[in-house]
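Summary for the steering committee. The consortium agreed at its last meeting that each partner would contribute one worked example illustrating the joint modelling workflow. Our contribution is presented below. We chose a case with several input lines so that the handling of multiple components could be demonstrated. No manual editing was applied between input and output; the record is shown as generated.
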Amino acid sequence: MRLYLLILTGILSFASPSQAESFRVAAAADLQQAMPHLVAAFQQVYPQYEPQVTLGSSGVFSSQLRQGAPFQLFMSASSVYVEPLVAAGLTQDEGHIYAYGTLALVSRSPLHAESAQAALAAWQAKTSRPRLALANPRHAPYGQAAQDWLLTQPKGQVLLNSAVLGENAAQAVQFVFSGALEMGVLAWPLVQQRFPEASVWRIPPESHRLLDQRMVLMHSAGDAARAFYHFLQSKEARAIFQAQGFDWVP
Amino acid sequence: MDWSALSISLKLAFWTSVLLLPLGLVLGRWLAWYPPRAAAWVHSLIFLPLVLPPTVLGYYALLAIAPDAPLGMLWQSLSGRSLAFSFEALLLVSLVANLPFVVQPISNSYQALDRDIYDAGRVCGLAPWSLFWRIELPLIWPGVLSATMLTFTHTLGEFGVVLMVGGNLAGETRTLSIAIYDEVQALNMSAAGQMSLFLLLLAFSALLWMQWQNRRARRLML
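What follows is the complete predicted structure of the assembly.
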């Protein structure tokens, strides 16, 4: 019995808060690869601050924030999901655009094609039941952009109807990476370093709605979150965003 | 291994089991020994979380704990903290979700308990409290054990409700099952594999231990 108690006290006292001042960041899933680099660079300058990052779809975060989720900084993949929060008076200001996102068509097996459009057509021609991976357009900006592009393609609606929807941009990538699906319309920042060049085609940004990635400080934000917010606008952060596949101009 | 997620999972499982047990004892005993006229209704209500999609439970929980809902407001005024997306909210939903797992085994044990022994104790003048400690509890012990173990392991495995109500906050509501989901999305298969294996072994050994304890208890009773 004494042993049980010992183990239990061990379990319950486990989560000792770290010394650094931590703050919560809700980050769009397309930041999955960039975030560790950004956090590491930030902590070089501010070792006393500790960002606690949750990745997910911007639409889900937006709705959670309206229900009082305790995030201090929201890094959305699109302005669309920041605006209602600003309008509801939940944010400190209207925020700041930190990057622009783009899409890529990704295939597991190599295909000889010049463009995303040609690759999609070639794949459709040789596949009996084509199934694409994309993020859920209901609440993920990358899913909405993917839908926009697909609708400009021949038989795009058919592909959309049979598409497998990821909970967010990162899960859609996982569907293809794991081999579950052959092809996907995915977030370029999540695939640029993970797939061989021969099977990735960038999709022109004019063919879909703007992925203007806006971040905003919530009212609960303190010095730590504010420092991170300003760091993300610095030259250094800009270089990391660029290296990770984000653009600076639309 | 995500240690903070593990500690949150264990904390959640521990408190769910500890807080549910007294409620399970009261409800199980009542349903087995003094079935109310509306027993069918009560049973259906208690078993609801077993068959409902976790998302339905999550949906109603989100409505209930919202900052402008009565429960959310009450909590805010008592604790000064928001209930939405907190560990306490997770615990609250977990209590509801696990109700059938604790009531069912205890109620079964009470049904199987030989009432003559209980009556003999009462005739001998044992106070209700002593009756419970010295007669009821030893006899329904296997049921109590099953209830606790099922609740504990089931809470470790809870996913849908936790994601919906907790919102995946590191150090607050990110349980081990959510951390596994995150690692798979990040294509960190080895990290996900480690944590999955850990949960697999933990769940299996808990069930095995429960079987052994039950067998031992039954042997002692014969």
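Residues 13-17 of chain A have pLDDT under 50 and may be disordered. The two ends of chain A are 64 Å apart (CA to CA).
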